[in-house]
Amino acid sequence: MSLTPSERAEFQRLRAKKNAPAREARKIARKAIGKQHRGRERDNGYLAYLRRQPCAARHLGGCAGPIDPAHIRYNDGPDRQNPGGARKNHDHHANPLCRAHHDEQHRGSERAFWDRVGKDAYATAAEHYAAYRGTTALSGAEAMEGEGRG
């Protein structure tokens, strides 16, 4: 049985009206959860700490602009998680970069950027996070194992 365009439109309107309460309930539930509870660990204090640190790529020269917390967006093996889907990594996986270097990090291959900087992004982030927390820095792999991903 084939519906005419007007019958199809009426059917879709009635179905949308019938499903509206459930759709509204899901929308309210999403708002109640909020972004901070969607799996990403957030630490505004750490991000503020990073903004007061020097650029991790300052030895390359060309620093310009304020310091931004640069979240690591690549993975490097089975023990590291790439958030993917245009999502940021956990806040403790961020490094201080000036605006110019932060933009450069996102323009091309992030792995190539960190190779050019000559630092392991995860290990550097772990060192900064340990300094912020006042603890001994773990290597990048040790930090990830401590999160149960190893």
Structure characterization notes:
With 150 residues, this protein is mainly α. It folds into 2 domains: 5-33; 44-146, no CATH class. The protein is built from 6 helices and 2 strands, in the order H-H-E-E-H-H-H-H. The model is unreliable at 138-150 (pLDDT under 50).
Total helices: the number is 6
Report low-confidence residues grouped into runs of 5 or more. Answer: 138-150
Strand content: 5-15%
Going across the major beta sheet, what is the strand order? 1-2
Task: Please sum up the structure shown.
By secondary structure, the chain is mainly α.
Labels describing this entry:
two-stranded antiparallel sheet, 150 residues, 6 helices, disordered C terminus, 49% helix
Sequence-ordered SSE layout with sheet pairings:
Blueprint: H1 5-33, H2 44-51, E1 67-71, E2 94-98, H3 99-107, H4 110-117, H5 121-133, H6 140-146
Antiparallel strand pairs: 1-2
